[in-house]
């Protein structure tokens, strides 16, 4: 299966990308896909905030599972597979660069039943970087 996600830079609706990624990929690969699609450079802290489809609890998926910004269950992005977490109703927030706090809203817009083994940016609009304050995002959804 292939997930097609709409990734929008919060506060800047004119800056968005559509990314296709196999459902068996890790959140680490998803992070890398978003990095490439938006043209981010450098290495910065980041996290996905998502609701656990089983419990409904808000969790963090990040590269530094031992580091905690706030008291949420935290999972290692290198080991977490998209299909374990993503459903058609899933809300995902991706925060990149904790100093500038670029927040992205991610929506699953399509699931394709085709063989696919790579990640691609299908479409997009707008240029980066843009300073967007995402502090309110952290506890919002």
- Note the main sheet: 8 strands, mixed
Radius of gyration: 14 Å
CATH architecture: Roll
Number of helices: 3
CATH topology: Structural Genomics Hypothetical 15.5 Kd Protein In mrcA-pckA Intergenic Region, Chain A
| Overall outline | globular
Going by helix content, strand content and strand pairing, the class is mainly beta
Distance between the terminal alpha carbons, to the nearest Å?
A: 27 Å
Description of the structure:
The chain has 141 residues and is mainly β. The chain has one domain: Structural Genomics Hypothetical 15.5 Kd Protein In mrcA-pckA Intergenic Region, Chain A (Roll), CATH 3.10.290.30. The chain contains 3 helices and 8 strands; from the N terminus they run E-E-H-E-E-E-H-E-E-E-H. The protein has helices spanning 27-38, 82-85, 137-140; strands at residues 2-9, 16-22, 46-51, 58-62, 73-76, 91-96, 102-112, 120-125. It has an 8-stranded mixed β-sheet, covered by helices on one side. It is globular. The protein starts with a strand and ends with a helix. Mean pLDDT is 82; it is low at 129-141.
List keywords for this structure.
141 residues, mainly beta, Structural Genomics Hypothetical 15.5 Kd Protein In mrcA-pckA Intergenic Region, Chain A, 8-stranded mixed β-sheet, globular, disordered C terminus
């Amino acid at each position: 299966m292939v997930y097609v996600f709409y990734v929008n830079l919060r506060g800047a609706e004119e800056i968005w990308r559509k990314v296709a990624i196999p459902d068996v990929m890790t959140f680490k690969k998803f992070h890398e896909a978003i990095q490439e699609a938006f043209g981010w450079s450098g290495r910065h802290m980041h996290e996905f905030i998502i609701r656990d489809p089983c419990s409904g609890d808000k969790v963090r998926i990040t590269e530094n599972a031992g580091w905690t910004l706030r008291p949420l269950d935290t999972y290692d992005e290198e080991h977490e597979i998209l299909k374990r977490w993503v459903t058609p109703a899933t809300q995902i927030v991706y925060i990149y660069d904790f100093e500038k706090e670029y927040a992205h809203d991610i929506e699953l817009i399509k699931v394709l039943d085709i063989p696919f083994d790579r990640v691609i940016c299908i479409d997009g609009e707008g240029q980066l970087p843009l300073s967007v304050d995402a502090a309110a995002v952290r506890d919002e959804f």
